[in-house]
Amino acid sequence: MKIFKLILKNFKRHKLRLSLTIVGIAIAVMAFSLLRTVITAWNAGVDIAAPNRVVTSHAVSFIMPLPISYRDKIAKIPGIESITYANWFQGIYKDKNQFFPRMAIDAETFFDVYYEYKVDTSIYLDAMKKQRNGCIIGKKIAKEYNLTIGDKMIVDGDIYPGRWEFEVVGYYSGKGNPKVDETWMVFNWSYLDEQLRQSQSGRGGFVGWYVFKVKDPNKIAEISDAIDKEFFNSYAKTKTQTEQAFNQSFVSMSGAILSAIEFVSFVIIGILFLVLANTMIMSARERIREYAVLKTLGFTTSHLVLLITGEAIIISLVGGSVGIAVTFPIVDVLAEAFARIFPIFIVANSTLVIAVSFIIVAGIISSLVPLYRSIKMSIVDGLRFIG
Amino acid sequence: MKIPFSYTFRSLWTRRLTTIMTIAGVALVVFVFAAVLMLAYGVEKTMVDTGSENNVICLRKASQGELASQVDRDAINNIKTYPEIKLSNDGKPLASNELYTIINLTKIETNDMGNVAIRGVEPAAFELRSHVNIIDGKMFGLGINEIIIGANIHKRFYGCNIGNELAFGGEQWKIVGIFEANGTGFESEVWGDVNRFMTAFDRANVFSALTFALNNIDDFSTVQKRVEEDPRFNYVELKREKVYYREQSEIMAGFIRILGTTITIIFSFGAMIGAMITMYSAVANRTIEVGTLRALGFRRKNILSAFLFESLTIALLGAGIGIALASFLQFFSLSTINWGTFSEFAFGFELSSDIIIYSFIFSIVMGIVGGFFPAVRAARLNIVNALRAS
Fold this sequence. Notes:
The structure holds two protein chains of two kinds.
Chain A (H helix, E strand, L loop, with lengths): L1 H10 L3 H33 L5 E6 L7 E2 L2 H7 L3 E9 L3 E2 L8 E4 L4 H4 L4 E2 L1 H10 L3 E5 H6 L7 E6 L4 E12 L11 E4 H11 L6 E2 L1 E6 L5 H11 L7 E5 H11 L1 H32 L1 H10 L3 H37 L11 H18 L1 H9 L2 H6 L3
Parallel strand pairs in A: 5-10, 7-9
Antiparallel strand pairs in A: 1-12, 1-13, 2-11, 3-5, 3-12, 4-8, 6-9, 7-10, 8-9
Helix pairs in contact in A: 1-12, 2-9, 2-10, 2-12, 2-13, 10-12, 10-13, 10-14, 12-13, 12-14
Chain B lengths: L4 H10 L1 H33 L6 E6 L10 E2 H7 L15 E12 L6 E9 L3 H4 L4 E5 L8 E5 H6 L8 E4 L2 E10 L8 E5 H7 L5 E2 L1 E5 L6 H10 L6 E5 H45 L1 H9 L4 H28 L5 E6 L4 E6 L4 H28 L2 H6 L2
Parallel strand pairs in B: 4-9, 6-8
Antiparallel strand pairs in B: 1-11, 1-12, 2-10, 3-4, 3-11, 5-8, 6-9, 7-8, 13-14
Helix pairs in contact in B: 1-10, 2-8, 2-10, 2-11, 8-11, 10-11
C-alpha cells in the first residue's frame, strides 16, 4: 500500500510528461484497435456465413456461369433441404463509386435459403413475384439512397450490357441480426434471363452460382463430393464448398493487403512501447539517487519492482483505457462512412483482449531497463549520481 | 554567438538510451510512411507501365475493364481498317483482337485460390507490346492448345512450369513458354491464341477488346471522333492503353495511399509526443546548464536554436534509418488482387527520390513540432532561477 502511495506521489512530479505519455499511449492503442477493426470488417464475410449453407460454383472461376439445368440434378442429391441460385449483376448505379451488391435471384427460393434475411413474404415478396422488374433492397440502401416503394432504379449494365430499369417493391432487413448485410439489391433472375434471351441468345439459361441449405452440417463434405462428381465429366465442372470457404476465397484475394495492415498494427505496438519505455527510463534516471536512498532505508528489490513496474503498468493502463474509450465513438463514425465497403464494422472482443494484453506487456517490458539499472546499482554509486 | 554543434551531440550522447529510443520511434514512423508510399508507387508503376502511350484499347462503354467488356467482331473488323492504325512489316494493321477472362489457380505461398488473368492474343500483340519477351521455352503455336505464362505466374502458382498442362474452357492447355514484360502487369497473365480461346470459351463473335497501335501518337482524337460519330459503334469507347491501365490501378493505389496516410499521421502524433517527452526532459535535466550558458553570454535565441537543432538531429537520424530500412523492402514483392481487373497481380515496393524527399520533410516537421515547445521553455528560463535550480 505504501508503495502505491509512492507511485501516486511520483505521478505528480512531471505532470506534463505523464500526460504526454498517456496521450501517446492512447493514440497508439486507438490506432491499433482501428486497424484491427478494419481487418475484422474485411473478414466479416467469413463470420457471417451460415454453417449450413453451401455454394456450388464453376470449378474454373466463379465468374463463369453454370447451366440452370444443374439445379434439379443438385436438388436430387440427398441431404439438401432447399436450393436457390443467383447471378452477380453489378452494373453502374448513379456512378461507379456507388458500390453495393446487385444480384439476380430466384424470388421463390432465395429467402428460404438465406433464412436470416427477413422479408415480408405476403407483401414484398409477392409483389416481386408479380412485377417482372421488381427489386427488393436492404434497409441500409433504402435509407442511404432514400428509396421507397415505387421508386425506379436505373442501372447501366457492365457484365450484362444495356440500360436496366428496376422498380423498388420491397425491403429486407436482418431484424437486428448484426450478421445480415443490409446493402444488397436483389431482383428477379427470370427478368434477367428473359432480357438476355432476347438480346444475346447465347447467354440465356445460366446462373452464377447455386446456394443450398443442408439438413445436417456434418454431411457437407459428403454432399459436396457427390455434387462435384456428378458434374465431373460435364462441360462445366463444379466446385462445391461451404459458404464460409466461398467467402473466404474472396477475402484471401486481398490477403497481402490484409497482412500489411496486420504488420502495421504491430508496428504501432512498437511505438507504444518506445514512448512508454522512454518515459520510464527518463524517470528512473532522474530518481537514481532516490532509489539509493530507498535501498539505504531497507527497501528490498521486490519493493523496487512494485514501484517501477507498477508505475509503468498503471500509466500504460490509463493510456490504454483512454485509447479504447475513444475508439468506440470513432468506429461509430467510420461505420457510417464505410457502410457500403464494410457493411459490418464493429470492434470485436478479440481486438479488446489483444489490445489490453499488449498494454500490460508493454508496461512490464518498458520497466525492465530502469529496473535492471536500479537493482544492479550499488547504493554508493546511486547516491553519488549527478544526472 | 552560436552554441557549438558539439554541445548538442554530447548532450544526445549523455542520454544515449533515451536518444536511441526516440530515434527508433521516428525511424519506425518514417519506415511505415516510406513503405506505404513505395507500395502505392509500386502499384502505379507496375500498372501504368503496362500500357504504351501509342496503343489504343477499344472497350464497351460502362464496362469498367476488359473482364466485363464485349466488342463484336463486326466492330473490330471495321475499326481495324482505319488509316490511322500503324501497319506491321507484312502490311497488316498492327492490332490484336483479345479475349480476357480469369481462372482459378492455387497460390504456392498461401495455398489459397488466386484469380489468374487469361489473355487470348493475335501474333501482332508481341509487336504492339514490345516489352513482352519470351525468356524460356517457345512461342505458343496458332490453332493449337498451347499457352505461355508470365514470369510472376510461373513463380507464384502451382503447376505453372513448361511442359505442364492447365485445365480451363473445358480443355487442356500445354505450357510451352515463360515470358517477361519489364516487370509490368502482363507478367501476371497467361497468353494464348485468341481464336483458340474463343472456341474453347464458346464466345462466338464477341471479343473482350481490341488493341491497336497508332501511326502517329496525336491521331488519337481523330480515331476517337470517328468511332463516336459512327452509329454502329455507339456502344464502344476508345482509351489510350496507358490511360486505361492507370485507371485500373487507381482504386488500389488510392486505397493504399489513403489508408497508409491516415495510419502514418496517427503514428506521427505518437512519434512527436515521444520527441516532445525526450526534449522536455532534456530541458528539465539541463536547467543549470542552460542557466550557465545564458550567464556565459549566449542569447535566448541561441538556446532556442540549440534545442531545436537537437530535436531536428534526432528526427533526421530517425528519417535516415527509416529510409535505409525501407529501401530494403525493394527486394520484396507482393501479390494481391487488383480490384480494377479482378485478377491477381504482383508488384514490388518502389523507392523514388520524391519519396525520400517527402520522408525527410515529414521527419523535419515531426522534429520541429516535437522540439519547439520544449525549446521555447528552455529559452524562457530566467538566468538566476535556472542557476539556482537543484
